[in-house]
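Structure first, sequence second, as always.
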């Protein structure tokens, strides 16, 4: 409990807040002591009126006295639908104080990504990746905070913040360890729901234990009462103040102000009047008090509540349809009544015609909810028109348009569609979705409705595949969507079905649409997508499908992108089934133009999507053209990073680049890249195909490095176990899982997993023994208990490897044969494996073959070469194995 009363009555809500202020003082000590100190986050929770805003004001005062820069922002109930509203409040003043070239210099590469979200730059593209925008905002604050040290960020009423701000705040809170900044967040408990509640919980988890504010005790209420109305207030009167207000600091301050206004004597005989005064201080009483100020003042307050932000006398006058002089009179009256604050001059102007604010969020909420529904709707409509006429854009007007009743207004539908496009351009798909859903409720004209549904499906593609499916299916069921838009909608629908793990439905969707078209580029495009989705099915691709694809591709010369797509698909299919690697490379090369991707087939081109190019790079990867695979995947990472696609696209680019590194034997680079892919994949969502690719690749790489316990830990942490996705995963998921189980000693489980891979290969009509090396691992696992079957598996693997024809495939098959052989035969086979793998681009397999040959031949020279290769690759277990044999030296020559 605070022993003495605060220095001034204005600090009244700070009674009994010693613990919170001490925590802040300690955090400020750390912040101001050293610019390299770690950042910290404090969360203050309390019900309405318990003094959160007053506490933040005191923190500002103390921090500024310590020489800190303080940036602040506050959520508002009526502004939750405005994306980036709160983070713009927080950062815009600092950014607008810079010259444009200074802002660009400080934000660097993030300027074009974070700038549109912050309202200081124009969008560079139609759609911005929400995750990349979030990362850009994090980077922006980090860079600005280094310039402004020591910096304190204050966020009030975070429960009313927009989701885009909360997403940034949650990401920023996780990265405070290496940034010297103090963040203080105030919120009410239980006010937020859904994603907002989840994000607020993530913020709280990143900071110190939250401070939960409690009501004032009777003693503190008595002290506050005497500090406000006079020391002569008697005990009975003070006890009644506490009983009436429940110790709520805001209610107590407002009640005591009413006591002063009414000149009520603070004695027991007058205590009975307190309850009536309290009813007039807030809620319905506040509304009655407002009405008592007159109709004009009430209309002014309503208009201010409708605007919510940017409240100026001129704007309110126009919205409330009153002249300027009357509006200024109303503003003065409302300020005197402690409903609005005195106008603040704009920063640096010295003028007195600045923005108004409500004294407290509780007052703003009460005023807004007191507006009659019909009047409220009409005023929102007028506010939207005012904003539009001032040229502020459809997105700013949208929050008012969302409140207007549906009325078959074609113009409103177009405004909402324009607002959705603006929201998408700054990385706010949730806001775009709200606008388009409201446009549907208007409703749009029948010929427009299909287009709105199509746009709505596109807006939700990154965030909710299931919703996307519903909207696109509805759009396609209408007559308004035709031509290229219809075909694009079908393709997007099939992609959404794929990402929603409805692969068979994705295939049927494009197949049915293809049947509606005559032979030509459109039909060929749809057929290509059908073959693409069938080709990435993990279990049930039939040999008949491969024959149909081969027949269709045989007619293609690569003269347009539809034909190039079919050539890529045929090359990928041939690679997965272990057909001639030379033919695979020829097919893939014919899909390029002068060795590069054709125009319209780039990584960010939407007509074909990234899946096709991932298949192209994968075909090169397993056909031993790792130079081309690395070049493709490195370009994907560069393009997605530059374009700001920091979600699933960049995750997959990293996963496949990590695969290329793993195949090359660059195990350290592979591990780092795959870990980055997994971090990005987790942001998108677990159990999706891209998540499996990153996890499987990382487990495979850790096993190659000999880090078995770590590989098992990753598998356990990230759910690398059945049930598997319906899409194909590279590297082969069952082969990697089976090898992991064998490595940790779960031999029977490992054999079962590899035998399941064998059944899958049989259903698909064959396999590539390098892509899916289950046969080699299974042969080694069965060598002791079933040598005949092991020998047969090894022989089959060798036959398939020779059919495929790469040095890596043949070398790996020979390594397997050598492992099953004994005596001089084993030495000979190991020597032949080295010969092939020396010519292979897969240096890890070469290193393993060298070590195995060195041990079999008892050769110091070969072990030394294997040791050098293993070190270069980062294969720690091979290094240890070679060293152990070399150090013992028994039988070596």
């Amino acid at each position: 409990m605070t022993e003495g009363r605060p220095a001034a009555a204005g600090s009244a809500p700070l009674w009994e807040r010693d613990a919170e202020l001490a925590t802040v003082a300690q955090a400020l000590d750390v912040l101001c002591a050293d610019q390299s100190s770690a950042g910290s986050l404090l969360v203050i929770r309390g019900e309405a009126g318990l003094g959160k805003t007053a506490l933040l004001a005191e923190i500002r005062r103390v921090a500024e006295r310590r020489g800190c820069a303080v940036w602040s922002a506050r959520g508002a109930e009526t502004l939750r639908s405005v994306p980036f509203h709160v983070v713009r409040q927080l950062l815009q003043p600092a950014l607008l104080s810079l010259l444009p070239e200074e802002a660009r210099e400080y934000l660097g590469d993030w300027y074009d990504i974070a700038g549109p979200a912050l309202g200081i730059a124009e969008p560079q593209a139609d759609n911005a990746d929400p995750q990349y925008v979030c990362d850009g905002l994090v980077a922006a604050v980090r860079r600005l905070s280094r310039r402004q040290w020591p910096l304190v960020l204050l966020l009030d009423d975070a429960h009313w913040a927009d989701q885009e701000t909360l997403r940034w705040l949650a990401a920023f809170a996780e990265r405070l360890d290496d940034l010297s900044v103090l963040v203080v967040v105030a919120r009410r408990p239980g006010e937020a729901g859904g994603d907002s509640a989840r994000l607020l919980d993530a913020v709280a988890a990143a900071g110190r234990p939250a401070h939960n504010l409690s009501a004032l005790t009777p003693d503190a209420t008595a002290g506050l009462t005497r500090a406000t109305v006079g020391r002569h207030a008697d005990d009975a009167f003070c006890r009644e103040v506490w009983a009436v207000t429940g110790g709520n600091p805001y209610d107590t301050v407002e009640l005591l102000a009413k006591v002063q206004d009414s000149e009520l004597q603070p004695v027991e005989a007058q205590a009975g009047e307190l309850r009536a005064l309290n009813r007039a201080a807030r809620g319905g009483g506040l509304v009655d008090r407002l009405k008592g100020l007159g109709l004009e003042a009430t209309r002014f307050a309503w208009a201010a509540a409708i605007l919510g932000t940017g409240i100026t006398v001129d704007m309110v006058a126009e919205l409330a349809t009153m002249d300027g002089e009357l509006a200024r009179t109303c503003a003065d009256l409302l300020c005197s009544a402690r409903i609005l604050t005195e106008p603040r001059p704009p920063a640096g102007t010295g003028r007195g015609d600045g923005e108004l604010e409500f004294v407290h969020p509780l007052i703003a909420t009460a005023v807004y909810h007191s507006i009659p529904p019909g009047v409220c709707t009409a005023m929102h409509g007028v506010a939207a028109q005012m904003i539009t006429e001032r040229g502020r854009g459809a997105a700013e007007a949208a929050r008012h348009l969302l409140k207007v009743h549906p009325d078959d207004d074609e113009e409103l539908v177009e405004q909402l569609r324009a607002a959705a496009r603006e929201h998408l351009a700054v990385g706010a798909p949730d806001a775009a979705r709200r606008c388009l859903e409201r446009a549907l409720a208007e409703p749009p004209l029948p010929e427009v409705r299909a287009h709105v549904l199509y746009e709505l499906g596109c807006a939700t593609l990154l965030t909710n595949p299931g919703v996307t499916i519903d909207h696109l299916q509805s759009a396609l069921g209408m007559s308004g969507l035709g031509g290229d838009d219809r075909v694009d909608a079908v393709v997007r629908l099939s992609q959404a079905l794929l990402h929603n793990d409805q692969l068979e439905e994705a295939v049927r969707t494009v197949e049915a649409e293809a049947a509606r078209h005559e032979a030509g580029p459109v039909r060929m495009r749809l057929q290509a997508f059908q073959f693409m989705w069938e080709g990435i099915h993990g279990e049930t691709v039939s040999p008949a499908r491969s024959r149909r694809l081969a027949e269709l591709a045989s007619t293609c010369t690569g003269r347009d992108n539809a034909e190039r797509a079919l050539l890529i698909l045929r090359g990928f299919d041939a690679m997965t089934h272990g057909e001639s690697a030379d033919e695979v490379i020829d097919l893939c090369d014919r899909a390029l133009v002068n060795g590069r991707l054709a125009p319209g087939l780039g990584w960010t081109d939407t007509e074909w999507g990234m899946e096709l190019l991932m298949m192209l790079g994968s075909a090169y990867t397993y056909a031993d053209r790792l130079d081309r695979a690395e070049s493709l995947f490195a370009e994907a990472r560069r393009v997605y990073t530059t374009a700001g696609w920091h979600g699933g696209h960049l995750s997959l680019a990293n996963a496949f680049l990590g695969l290329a590194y793993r195949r090359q034997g660059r195990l350290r680079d592979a591990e780092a890249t795959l870990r980055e892919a997994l971090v990005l994949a987790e942001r998108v969502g677990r159990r999706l195909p891209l998540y499996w690719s990153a996890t499987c690749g990382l487990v495979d790489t850790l096993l190659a490095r000999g880090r078995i316990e770590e590989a098992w830990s990753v598998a356990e942490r990230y759910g690398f176990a059945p049930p598997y996705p319906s899409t194909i995963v590279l590297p082969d998921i069952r082969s990697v899982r089976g090898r992991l189980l064998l490595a940790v000693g779960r031999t029977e489980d490992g054999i079962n997993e590899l035998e399941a891979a064998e059944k899958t290969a049989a259903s698909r009509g064959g396999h590539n023994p390098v892509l899916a090396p289950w046969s080699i691992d299974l042969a080694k696992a069965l060598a002791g208990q079933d040598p005949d079957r092991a020998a047969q598996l090894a022989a089959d693997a060798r036959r398939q490897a020779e059919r495929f024809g790469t040095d890596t495939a043949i070398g790996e098959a020979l390594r397997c044969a050598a492992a099953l052989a004994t005596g001089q035969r084993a030495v000979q086979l190991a020597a032949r494996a080295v010969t092939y793998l020396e010519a292979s681009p897969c240096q890890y397999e070469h290193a393993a073959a060298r070590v195995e040959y060195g041990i079999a031949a008892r050769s110091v020279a070969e072990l030394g070469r294997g040791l050098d290769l293993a070190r270069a690759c980062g294969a720690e277990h091979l290094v240890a194995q070679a060293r152990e044999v070399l150090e013992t030296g028994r039988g070596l020559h």
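Margin note: The two ends are 83 Å apart (CA to CA).
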